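Lab meeting minutes (informal)
Scribe: AK
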Amino acid sequence: MQFRSLPKARVVVLLLALVAPLTLPLPAVAADCEFVLGFKTLRDLVNADESRDKVGACLDSERYNPENGDSLQHSAGGLLVWRKADNGTAFTDGYRTWINGPQGLQARLNTERFDWEAGADVLPVETTGYSDSEHGFTLQVPVGWANGDPPGGGIVSFTGPEEGDGARPSIVVKRHGSGSNDLETFVARAREAAVAIVPGYVPGDAGTTTVGTLPGWFQEYAVEAQSLSTRGRQTFVLRDEHVYALTMTALASTWDHHAPLFRAVEQSLTFTSPAPATDSGRPTLTLPHTEAQLSEARTNLVATTVGTTVLFAGGGDALFGSPSAVVDLYDGDTGRWSTATLTEARGLLAATTVGKKALFAGGLADVFESSSVVDIYDSTSRSWSTAELSVARDSLAATAVEGKALFAGGEDAAGKTSAAVDIYDAETGSWSTAVLSLARQFLAAASVGGKALFAGGVDEASQSSAVVDIYDGATGRWSTATLSQARDQLAAISAGTLALFAGGEDTAATASSVVDIYDSATGEWSTATLSAPRRSLGAAVVGDLVLIAGGWDGEQDRDVIDVFNAATGTWSVTTLSQARDSLAAATAGMKILFAGGEDDVGTSSAVVDIFDLPSDGE
């Protein structure tokens, strides 16, 4: 099953490949080149193949190898040419070889070796420099490799010529938040993720390396997928609290040919210093950070805190949509984890805490089966009970105010957007209902100054909404306001007298960087901006510090965390250990936890980022 969230296109991509040795092109020499055996025949072949003319000008710089009788030459057009004892001439672009000799004209991949050819490790391939000023690194890449759109989260990718069955060798550079200066921990996590992403992944030996002057880690791996056997090498470079991953992949049958080139290019990777500025030029805030793991990887889960215990409940598998009933409990006093189980597995549910009780309501239990179940955890007795919503629905929002828990909006099993509000009174244990001014789902909720605010969402016409419904906990009366921009899948959090509604996306599925801020002390609204537009993000607060983390920007998941100081009105940034969206966020004492979610390739995450915040809020 798949959750009925507003989807983001996901393509499970095998992590890609590296680059090649360092022989610069020689200057062109204008002349009639037909004196070279087979030259005209080769040129006609290349042209007939509707390829660009790779021959260029005449050959020059002949070098004789007495060990095997080869005469090695270069052409200015990027084609390497060598002759074997005058009985044949071979031409190669580094990946394919054309031979004109005693057996006539032949064309093969370099991986289909000829007995008399030189080994792959001595075949120079022309390279050219690639420079990325935004991230401050340079890299040598093979001439003729295509520079295409990188996969999600990628900085740059290059692909070589097709090698059969549509497979191409490739090179990708990606950047990840390291979460620490421990490369071994990062690589272990990356390896676990690769197991989930790539069926048949078999890791090889891994160890430390040095790339330029920076510490690095490498691992090699093999993959059996879609009837293709591939091999790869990944190199992770630690730099300025980020890890740059250089990943190289090729068919297993061509690996011996590419491996020496890959290793050479690995050593061509260099970084400038200092590192480029962070998003929007905001200062970076360094916070003590550790990591943990949920008992089960999942996305679209929810979190709430009762006392100093955080409960992460429900969710599901991002790839297959299988809902989960797991509840992971984190004890903020001891740091220990335990588990419990919801009465019904479901994702896209809502959670809030009122008094000593944590409530988990509604959700999507199957493709067309919204749930009305409310699971209630009593932290005093550590027992569970259940209740029922007035209408079964998923994609709803929840918050608590003045001893009441409110569950608003959502979508029912028939696909109808709901305006229902279920209100639980913790003192009496009774339930009542109300109605939003506009039916909508994927809205966000926060409470501040005795008021509960339900903002944004998607209405019955599938349009993003700017409506804010405001419930006064003391009087039970409702009023409305308007966001500065209509959007859904936004995050909501309160700090002091402020309620923040951050990010989201509009009807056109364009991610937003807008932050609408409501001040309950004045009743006034103002706006700010995130460092990067994104939706399906998570938010939590300790004291005056609000952390708004992760999210999907329309092209890739982000690892950025925007940090807002409610006391000073200033912004800074830090990073998650793993870029992801649809994560859950909660507070335990002076700790903020971001758990689960899904990454760029649509794989559910079990990662929990735990940040220790300063007690003075600075």
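Next up, CB showed the second protein from the same session:
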Amino acid sequence: ARLTAPTHVIASDPKVYSIFQGALADEVLQNPVVSMSVVTGAGHSPHRDKPEDTLAHLAAAIA
């Protein structure tokens, strides 16, 4: 299924741990309604590792 609603992915830092990188990210981001930001220094759970930074990414995405 192809996403049709605007979607923003808040991803963890690939230098720490992220499954959303490489070919998977490239494929998903080909869809023009999908955007992405990376929480630097966050691992698998950005909302736990860097809650303030994650909220900043969320606020920017919905602004």
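CB comment: The mean pLDDT is 92.
No objections, moving on.
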